[in-house]
Amino acid sequence: MEKRLNLLMFSGDYDKAMAGLILANSAREINIEVTMFFTFWGLLLLRDPEKIDMEGKSLYEKMFSTLTPKDIEQLPLSKMNYAGLGKAMMKEMLEDEDAPPLIAFLKGARKKQVKFLACKLSVDILGFKQEEFYPEVEIVDAKVYLEDALKSDIQLFI
Amino acid sequence: MEKRLNLLMFSGDYDKAMAGLILANSAREINIEVTMFFTFWGLLLLRDPEKIDMEGKSLYEKMFSTLTPKDIEQLPLSKMNYAGLGKAMMKEMLEDEDAPPLIAFLKGARKKQVKFLACKLSVDILGFKQEEFYPEVEIVDAKVYLEDALKSDIQLFI
Amino acid sequence: MEKRLNLLMFSGDYDKAMAGLILANSAREINIEVTMFFTFWGLLLLRDPEKIDMEGKSLYEKMFSTLTPKDIEQLPLSKMNYAGLGKAMMKEMLEDEDAPPLIAFLKGARKKQVKFLACKLSVDILGFKQEEFYPEVEIVDAKVYLEDALKSDIQLFI
């Protein structure tokens, strides 16, 4: 029977998002089905930068939408404090190894049919709209996540 | 057979605690058994604010007990640095959606018979006492956690 | 059949590394097989401090190698901000309880035959070399991690 990987993407950190998306891409390459359920800061990964739309947002939602990075390459590292190792340095190190940037792993996951779910409660709280996400993103509640996770062979909270 | 969810709650962040408690509540609503094992900063979620007791604590334990938030609504966000999105702003956004605060999800989990375990080693290191926790909290070692996790269908480290 | 625990060690935080290594040691004591797959900051746990070698590293790799803590006891806490609870205070609290330091749990895990895997992509990006790690560390790709995780009964992302 087909094996399944389920990733709960809570974090919006560049390095953690990369860890999750590398796992998702690698899993698809060996025919493992992958579901990624994005919640809280993880939702920042799902926004289509071309489609951000302020209409109908509350003041806080507008502020949140304006102040958070629309380009996922601008997401921060989870650790900036190892003696000043900065994001710029990390990106240079990636380039030195010809490692693709985060956006390439996101594109790869989309192309490889990873299932993208977004947590309805988080979407409502943070004021996102369906139209702001990539079109394949489905907005679902925590029960849909749990049912998918129950069917999966590996579940991780990232 | 009954399905089981096992959450290892390491973090004492407001947003991560909320993610864990929303999963716990949602799981109980669809009849999944839930165990939450609290360790390190996660233990801050289990203290009954009415029952904090300094007697017999070492100087460091007293400092720790005094300086950490007794009211879980005061716990920090895991990210404060997305362009200044602060805790206050997040709480306003929760209220705008009529989303309950963290304490309501904790009360819900207690009412719905989520099993609360506390890690003995962490309890000892941080100087907590059984009487300071909610009465249903059981203090157990990592092996009890592992045995529960082995029987579970989903295990997450939050 | 033998039970298996699989830990993906992403974090290089002192407290999270301790949580992971305590689980690994406890699991071995009840005959659970343990694999730890180290990636990103987690790789800092695998360096043999006696064997750090700058030869052939790029400028960024040298900076990274020089600036990150070689002694794992110097790794930072994931939270320093709970009202100033610092690393020094945490270490005093550990000593008060005669709890072993992180390095003791790492030694225990090595002695108890925990399987140590290092993520090839992270090793390349951060510029580590096989000879800098403890000798039993195997450098493998994400697919080897996934295959091990699929065979495991518990999988956690730490």
UniProtKB/TrEMBL annotation, chains A, B, C:
<dbReference type="InterPro" id="IPR027396">
    <property type="entry name" value="DsrEFH-like"/>
</dbReference>
<dbReference type="InterPro" id="IPR032836">
    <property type="entry name" value="DsrE2-like"/>
</dbReference>
<dbReference type="Pfam" id="PF13686">
    <property type="entry name" value="DrsE_2"/>
</dbReference>
<protein>
    <submittedName>
        <fullName>Sulfide reductase</fullName>
    </submittedName>
</protein>
